[in-house]
Amino acid sequence: MSISPAQGVFPVSQTATLRDMTIDDYDAVIALWQQTEYVNLNECDTRDGIDLYLRRNPGLCFVAETGNGIVGAVLCGHDGRRGFLRHLAVARDHRQSGVGKQLVNKVMDALHEQGIGKCNIFVDNGNKPGFSFWEYMGWGYLRRKFSHLANRDAPVHPLWGYTHT
Ligand SMILES: CC(C)(COP(=O)(O)OP(=O)(O)OC[C@H]1O[C@@H](n2cnc3c(N)ncnc32)[C@H](O)[C@@H]1OP(=O)(O)O)[C@@H](O)C(=O)NCCC(=O)NCCS
User: Fold this and answer.
1) Which domains does the chain carry?
2) Which of 28, 62, 94, 157 has the fewest CB atoms nearer than 10 Å to its CB?
C-alpha cells in the first residue's frame, strides 16, 4: 500500500520509508534493538514501558521500514527544554544508505515543530563508530564538565518487567 507524505509516511530511499512508531511495532523494534550493538536496553524497554514512552512523546519516535519489515528505529522525547534521542538503530544490511541520517533529521524536525532546538544523546563510551557517526552529523560534546548520575537504587515500578542494570 502506498501512503502519501500528507498521511505521515515519508520516503527515505528507494527501499525504506519513515513513519511514526506505534506500539504495534514493538516486537519488530525490540528485535532490531536486541540485534544492534551498543543499544543498551533496560527496564524502560518492556512493552508497557515503550507504550508509556510513545504516549508521552507523540510524533517524536519513528521507524524506517521496507517491504520486508522494520530496518530502523529511534525514540525521542523532551522535557519542555531539551530533547533526548535514544536507541537509534539501523539494521546492518541497510546501513550506509541514509536511513540513520533521515531518522535523526526527522526527529530534529519534529522537535523543532514542538519548540525544542537542542537534543541530547547518550553514546556508549565503547561505541567508536557511533561517536564517528555523530561527529560526522555535526554533533559533539556540549560541555565535558558534567557526569551522568541517576537515582539508580530507585524501587522497581510495577510497570517494569525487570530491575535496572
Ligand atoms: C550509527 C547508525 C545509526 C548509522 O546509520 P546509517 O543508516 O548507516 O547512517 P547513514 O547511512 O544515514 O549515514 C549518514 C552519513 O553518515 C555517514 N556515516 C555513517 N556511519 C558512520 C560512521 N560510523 N562514522 C562516520 N560516518 C558515518 C555516512 O557515510 C553518511 O554520509 P553521507 O550523508 O555523506 O552519505 C548505524 O550504524 C547503527 O545502527 N549503529 C549501531 C547503533 C548505534 O551506534 N546507534 C547510535 C547510538 S548513540
Assistant:
1) 5-136 (3.40.630.30)
2) 157
